[in-house]
What we know:
By secondary structure, the protein is an alpha/beta fold. The chain has seven helices and ten strands. The radius of gyration is 16 Å and the shape is globular.
Amino acid sequence: MEIIILPTPDDVARTAADAIEDQVRRGPSVLGLATGSTPLGTYRELIDRHRNGGLSFAAAQAFLLDEYVGLPASHPQSYHSVIRAEFTASVDFNAGAVHGLDGMARDPQAEAAEYEARIAAAGGVDVQILGIGTDGHVGFNEPMSSLASRTRIKTLTRQTRLDNARFFDAAEDVPDHVLTQGLGTIRDARHLLLLAMGEAKAEAVAAAVEGPVGAFCPASALQLHPHVSVLLDEAAASRLA
Ligand code: F6R
């Protein structure tokens, strides 16, 4: 793992955008996109580089990490809608190039298996953007997730539902279940970019980066990957030894 500690969240966003831009300019690319607050600065930076720096996503595909079960793609808090509003609608991905899990699928297991097949058919993910939960989750692989897990349905912890309540009118509106790429699926991406900003993430970051590899901190599974860049602001790095 390379750990890069940067002065501010904006520096984290710019550094992550540099890695994505390098990949996209190299040729047709498959990007792995996270939602949540963490990557928003990176997406804003990429939109700016698209508008003002000639960066094109026309030859790229993207796969979302996860989706709430029970929210149709049209729901404003579905990750389909969020990623469109925050990033993909503002750049030049081709129609059909941005893939997400169907949170309304009648058979979530079949949906998960089909998603794995779609990622494989695209040639796998070149660069995967990741945030981290305060409980150490990546994607929605909550503590005690199998380190070898594949895309599947998961139950959110109370902590994660509370953390995500800010996006909904009421905490009870946060869905209980999600479809998420597994820790094994995420580790198949060729380059992982784990981003964290702020003091609230410091403990989870320390456990992920310096703790033992284990299911208590799912993000620690990233230590098993040969190419991970951990981009932190000083607050998120404040509990590192
Ligand atoms: C989102 C995702 C989650 C978030 C994590 C951090 O697609 O997979 O793992 O990255 O919950 O969320 P934020 O960035 O909102 O603190």
